[in-house]
């Protein structure tokens, strides 16, 4: 019953859905049918470089918005989250780490550090060591959510490798940068997004919260998917956190 009411709020008046998520922008991209893919657009720490303080502030504000969004979903009875970068091989390890961190925090009193300041730049590892956690990791350590697999490991590894290989090729032959960039983009977005739909189609439940990068857009992937899979259709709702600015416009 809770899930039915939630779908009604999401699929109905935009103001009602925005109120549910604390004023964040809601885009009803595909009419309600089948499973509802709730794409909560995130900005995460840089994967291939260090992070300066301005970048970190943007990430932190976005993740604090997502923390509130997910907390509202938890209150509605949804405590499993599909999370970017999680494949079957690391899902259980991450959920177990949530349990361990929850125990350590309860014992030591350690909590999320919301007051990290620094000059210059820091790596993601250094920020985590200083107490930074993104929304999913915070809620996981609080024992409120568990993560579900979203990624095909082969497609994920191919995407990462395509970035490194692409950057090397651009350095070797800058004149081919546009062609190389399209290949990198396809591996990082379209191939992974298609794999995400294939995995999520196997899950039960009418609402599937997906915390995934702001630069991803599942609309074209779902359009193609629904034409090929009439008995396993998705609808799509994008939740754009209030601090997102101009990100996520693919």
Briefly summarize what is shown.
The protein is of the alpha/beta class and 250 residues long.
Principal-axes geometry comes out as: globular
Alpha-carbon Rg, integer = 19 Å
Helix content percent band: 40-55%
Number of strands: 8
Structural class: alpha/beta
Describe the largest sheet.
6 strands, mixed
How many domains would you count in the coordinates?
A: 1
Distance between the termini: 35 Å
Q: In which order are the strands of the major sheet placed?
A: 1-8-2-7-4-6
The average pLDDT value, as a whole number, equals: 81
How much of the residues is beta strand, in percent? 15-25%
- The helix tally amounts to 10
Low-confidence stretches: 11-16
H/E topology pattern: HHEEEHEHEHHEHHHEHE
Question: Care to describe what's here?
Answer:
By secondary structure, this protein is α/β, with parallel strands linked by helices. The protein has one domain. Helix content is 51%, strand content 16%. The strands form two sheets. It has a six-stranded mixed β-sheet, with helices on both faces. The chain has a two-stranded antiparallel ribbon with strand order 3-5. Helix 3 packs across helix 6. It is globular. The two termini are 35 Å apart.
Strand and helix map with partners:
Layout: H1 2-11, H2 14-20, E1 25-30, E2 35-42, E3 51-52, H3 53-75, E4 80-83, H4 88-108, E5 121-122, H5 124-129, H6 135-141, E6 146-148, H7 153-172, H8 177-188, H9 190-200, E7 207-213, H10 219-228, E8 234-240
Parallel strand pairs: 2-7, 2-8, 4-6, 4-7
Antiparallel strand pairs: 1-8, 3-5
């Amino acid at each position: 019953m809770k899930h039915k009411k939630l779908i009604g709020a999401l699929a109905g008046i935009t103001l009602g859905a925005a109120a549910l998520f604390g004023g964040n922008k809601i885009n009803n991209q595909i009419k309600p049918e089948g499973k509802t893919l709730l794409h909560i657009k995130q900005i995460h720490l840089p994967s291939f470089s260090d992070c300066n303080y301005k970048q970190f502030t943007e990430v932190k504000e976005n993740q604090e918005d997502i923390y509130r969004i997910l907390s509202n979903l938890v209150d509605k009875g949804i405590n499993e989250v599909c999370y970017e970068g999680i494949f079957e091989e690391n899902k259980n390890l991450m959920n177990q780490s949530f349990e361990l961190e929850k125990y350590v925090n309860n014992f030591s009193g350690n909590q999320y550090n919301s007051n990290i300041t620094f000059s210059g730049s820091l790596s993601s590892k250094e920020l985590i060591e200083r107490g930074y956690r993104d929304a999913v990791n915070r809620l996981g350590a609080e024992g409120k959510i568990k993560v579900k697999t979203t990624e095909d490991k082969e497609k994920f590894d191919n995407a990462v490798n395509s970035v490194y290989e692409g950057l090397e090729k651009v350095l070797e032959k800058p004149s081919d940068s546009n062609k190389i960039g399209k290949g990198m983009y396809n591996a990082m977005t379209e191939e992974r997004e298609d794999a995400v739909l294939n995995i999520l189609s196997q899950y039960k439940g009418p609402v599937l919260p997906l915390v995934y990068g702001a630069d991803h857009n599942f609309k074209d992937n779902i359009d193609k998917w629904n034409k090929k899979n009439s008995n396993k259709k998705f609808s799509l709702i994008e939740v754009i956190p209030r601090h997102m600015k101009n990100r996520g416009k693919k």
